[in-house]
């Protein structure tokens, strides 16, 4: 065989070299596009064979361009062959006569009409390589491998078979030919239709499923008949069968309908059950369909389909026939079937409306039967991901069947759990609109999905919309379903979050404690819904400054979830662990907070790696932010700032800069930049921190309102950084506003209020009013001792600052005693090289900042 390393001409062969014999090869397609990898793969396999000749089969559905690939291969590599012979192989007699016709070209003298004798002589000549050793025989459009067995030549030449029948895999080296990749589709249309926009080309490619034959037909209609893309897509939607049965081209002499029509007719005659199965598959998505999903028909469909689906042998035979006619892609490893969207369209379009509606209802029952009805269990997420692909294409959103609607609700919830909020929101909105129109706003499914939509809105930071949706839904549920109905309680679970977003922390705690007792009564203590309610109570406890209570609640919930799910890597288990990290930090137990946050971060990283949760899931981003804060509190300032910047970038990319959680991430970065700039005496870094903190403070005002406790807390952060860049008057004004607001909203004994007092005392000291600074600082110190305990780092900051004010006022002995006590307590809870310990020893004035909580 000639080497494949010879100098190539324009077509891929040797310049000026042509085969001695060139027979029946179709004209080369001047619009041939892409396929370079497939052609290279075919060439590699053909040149690489070392034993007796093995057929090389190009396999794929109709219209993917198997014949065009074979034609292109023949032209591209013709210089490496002495003989190239093309044999149409859809009918056995034609194969015999085509081979026999080669006899005189090989110098074989056989009496006229002795076709079989000529065929045998030709095969023998090819085997011996006389007179030509380097030959290529192409059998185009073959069916069963056994039909070609007696015609396949042996010898040193090459054999290519094109076929739709996947059974060639057992007797040939098969190269799978798929539809175009999207870049190939765009390249083809750009070359075929001069002036077509990328957007229009992409729309065509999407609607035609990147099928080369369909793209050629669409391109030809635009070039030759002047039909615009808009007109073509309209016709495709309204009269697809008529459209796809028109305008065959020279390169593809059979129209799209013709490419599949014969196979469909033969399947219908050969195995009616396989045909009926195919018709059901036409209402699924053009994505893989699990055979296990289809087998559910034995439970929900009537005979004879039910009987066939219940018989593994019959189902296996049907699958084989679908593969034989290339009407479906059969993947035996994954046990799936997959239909091209145009095949699905053609099958659906030939049905009468009543028949189409009946079969669509059957498909809805098949999908509903596959619903495990447990979307909160991570083990079921792969199943819901599989079902998600078929929900919209099957039209299940329009179904009146309760089980089908339950499937939609569960898919919405799965998407929410997985972290794909936009898709979940879109599906929920469309389903609610369809069901409300059909069944009214008080329909149970509408109410349940409306409750889920409220949670979606809340998670996306649309707090007012969530509040309005949840209020309305709760009122309707209480009236229609009852106060203690499980779904009413589920929606009630989220109402506390609405109150928190409105800054009503005490009311939220009162509501959630009542809801938790209702959950215990309705579901018991060992139910995931009860665990979620307990989680919310812990959030309320945090916001009300009851950090020890929150830690107790979250620790119990964490263990309860481990016991229930039987694993410590379930996302909700890990989230409880991250909540414990927050509780440890707020309780002043910084080393435990860091260790726990690192553990939770590692667990979430593993889940992301396993693709069990999205990298931009709110759980992952929230925990990452908490880890950054924990690192900063433990003095790991560089690592803290790097992670804070990384988390902020992800929030901005995923949710945008106005999302409340993105604002919290930005405030964390502002705090980290300020501390990092202070330590490194980098005034520019502190100025950058001031700019970001001011922008974020204004963002909080827009998101929550100017009188929300979190907005006031951000004002304190801004005052702290303004003080660092000598904007003393602005710092004083902000801290005064914040203290007044926090006292009104949270009272004098809340942690936030007391911390704000500590900052104001520092501002007073900066202004030279040491007496007022000492008095206010002492009040803050006493209050923090009561609320947080004497060993909490925030309490120690207040104490250290009071000692400095005492010293400045001449109370040297009392100041020294207090300072010594602070240093001793610091060293018992933090490493000796911690920045706060070192600053206390040096007699530096210290400050507090806030980390806006997740609500």
- Would you identify the CATH architecture of the domain at 21-176? 3-Layer(aba) Sandwich
User: Segments where pLDDT lies below 50 for 5+ residues?
Assistant: 1-16
Shape: elongated
Number of strands: 9
Task: Average the pLDDT over all residues and give the rounded result.
Answer: 90
Structural class, by secondary structure, is mainly alpha
* The CATH homologous superfamily of the domain at 21-176: P-loop containing nucleotide triphosphate hydrolases
Q: In whole angstroms, how far apart are the ends?
A: 73 Å
Q: How many helical elements?
A: 40
Sheet bearing the most strands, described? Answer: 6 strands, parallel
Roughly how many Å is the radius of gyration? Answer: 37 Å
What portion of the residues fall into strands of 2 or more residues?
under 5%
Helical content, roughly? 55-70%
- Remind me, CATH topology of the domain at 21-176? Rossmann fold
Strands ordered across the widest β-sheet: 1-3-4-5-2-6
State the name of the first-level CATH class of the domain at 21-176.
Alpha Beta
């Amino acid at each position: 065989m000639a080497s494949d390393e010879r100098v190539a001409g324009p077509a891929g062969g040797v310049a000026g070299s042509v085969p001695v014999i060139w027979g029946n090869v179709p004209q080369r397609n001047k619009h041939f596009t892409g396929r370079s990898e497939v052609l290279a793969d075919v060439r590699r396999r053909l040149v690489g064979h070392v034993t007796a000749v093995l057929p090389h089969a190009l396999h794929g559905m109709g219209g993917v361009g198997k014949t065009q690939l074979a034609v292109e291969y023949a032209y591209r590599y013709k210089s490496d062959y002495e003989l190239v012979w093309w044999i149409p192989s859809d009918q056995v007699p034609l194969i015999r006569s085509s081979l026999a016709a080669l006899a005189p070209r090989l110098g074989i003298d056989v009496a006229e009409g002795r076709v079989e004798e000529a065929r045998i002589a030709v095969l023998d000549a090819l085997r011996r390589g006389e007179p030509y050793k380097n030959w290529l025989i192409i059998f185009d459009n073959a069916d069963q491998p056994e039909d070609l067995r007696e015609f396949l030549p042996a010898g040193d030449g090459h054999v290519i078979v094109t076929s739709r029948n996947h059974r060639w895999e057992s007797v040939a080296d098969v190269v799978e030919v798929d539809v175009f990749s999207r870049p190939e589709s765009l390249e083809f249309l750009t070359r075929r239709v001069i002036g077509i926009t990328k957007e229009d080309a992409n729309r065509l490619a999407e609607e035609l499923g990147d099928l080369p034959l369909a793209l050629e037909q669409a391109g030809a209609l635009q070039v030759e008949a002047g039909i615009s893309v808009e007109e073509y897509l309209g016709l495709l939607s309204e009269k697809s069968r008529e459209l796809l049965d028109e305008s065959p081209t020279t390169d593809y002499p059979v129209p799209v309908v013709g490419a599949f029509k014969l196979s469909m007719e033969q399947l219908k005659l050969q195995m009616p059950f396989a045909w009926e199965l195919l018709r059901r598959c036409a209402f699924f998505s053009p994505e893989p369909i699990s055979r296990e999903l289809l087998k559910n028909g034995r439970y929900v469909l009537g005979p004879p389909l039910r009987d066939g689906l219940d018989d593994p042998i019959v189902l296996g035979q049907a699958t084989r026939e679908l593969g034989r006619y290339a009407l479906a892609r059969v993947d035996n490893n994954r046990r799936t079937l997959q239909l091209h969207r145009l095949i699905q369209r053609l099958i659906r379009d030939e049905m009468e409306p009543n028949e189409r509606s009946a079969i669509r209802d059957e498909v809805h029952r098949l999908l509903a039967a596959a619903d495990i009805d447990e979307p909160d269990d991570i083990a079921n997420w792969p199943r819901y991901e599989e079902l998600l692909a078929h929900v919209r294409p099957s039209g299940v959103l329009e179904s009146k069947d309760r089980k089908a609607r339950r499937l939609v609700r569960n898919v919405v919830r799965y998407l929410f759990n997985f972290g794909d909020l936009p898709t979940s929101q879109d599906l929920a909105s469309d389903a609610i609109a369809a069901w409300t129109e059909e069944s009214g706003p008080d329909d149970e499914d509408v109410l349940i999905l409306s409750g889920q939509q409220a949670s979606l809105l809340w998670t996306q930071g649309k707090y007012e919309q969530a509040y309005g949706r949840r209020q309305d839904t709760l009122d309707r549920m209480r009236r229609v379903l009852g106060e203690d109905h499980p779904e009413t309680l589920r929606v009630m679970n989220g109402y506390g979050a609405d109150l928190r977003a409105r800054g009503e922390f005490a009311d939220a705690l009162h509501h959630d404690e009542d809801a938790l007792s209702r959950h215990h009564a309705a579901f018991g203590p060992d139910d995931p819904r009860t665990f979620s309610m307990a989680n919310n109570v812990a959030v309320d406890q945090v916001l009300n400054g009851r950090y020890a209570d929150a830690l107790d609640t979250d620790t119990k919930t964490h263990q309860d979830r481990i016991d229930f799910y039987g694993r410590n890597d379930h996302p909700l288990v890990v989230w409880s662990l991250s909540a414990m990290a927050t509780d440890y930090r707020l309780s002043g137990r910084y080393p435990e907070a860091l260790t726990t946050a690192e553990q939770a971060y590692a667990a979430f990283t593993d889940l992301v790696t396993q693709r069990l949760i999205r990298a931009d899931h709110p759980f992952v981003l929230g925990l990452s932010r908490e880890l950054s804060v924990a690192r900063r509190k433990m003095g790991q300032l560089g690592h803290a700032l790097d992670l804070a910047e990384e988390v902020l970038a992800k929030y901005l990319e995923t949710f945008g800069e106005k999302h409340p959680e993105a604002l919290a991430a930005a405030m964390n970065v502002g705090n980290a930049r300020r501390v990092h700039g202070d330590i490194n005496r980098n005034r520019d870094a502190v100025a950058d921190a001031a700019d970001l903190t001011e922008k974020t403070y204004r963002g909080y005002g827009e998101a929550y309102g100017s009188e929300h406790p979190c907005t006031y807390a951000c004002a304190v952060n801004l005052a702290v950084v303004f003080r660092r860049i000598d904007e003393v008057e602005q710092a004083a004004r902000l801290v005064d506003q914040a203290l007044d607001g926090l006292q009104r909203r949270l009272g004098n004994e809340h942690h936030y209020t007391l911390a704000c007092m500590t900052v104001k005392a520092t501002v007073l000291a900066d202004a030279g009013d040491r007496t007022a600074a000492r008095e206010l600082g002492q009040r803050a110190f006493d209050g923090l001792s009561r609320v947080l305990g004497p060993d909490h780092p925030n309490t120690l900051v207040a104490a250290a600052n009071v000692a400095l004010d005492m010293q400045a006022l001449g109370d040297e002995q009392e100041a020294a005693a207090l300072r010594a006590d602070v240093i001793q307590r610091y060293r018992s809870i933090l490493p000796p090289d911690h920045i706060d310990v070192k600053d206390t020893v040096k007699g530096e004035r210290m400050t507090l900042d806030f980390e806006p909580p997740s609500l």
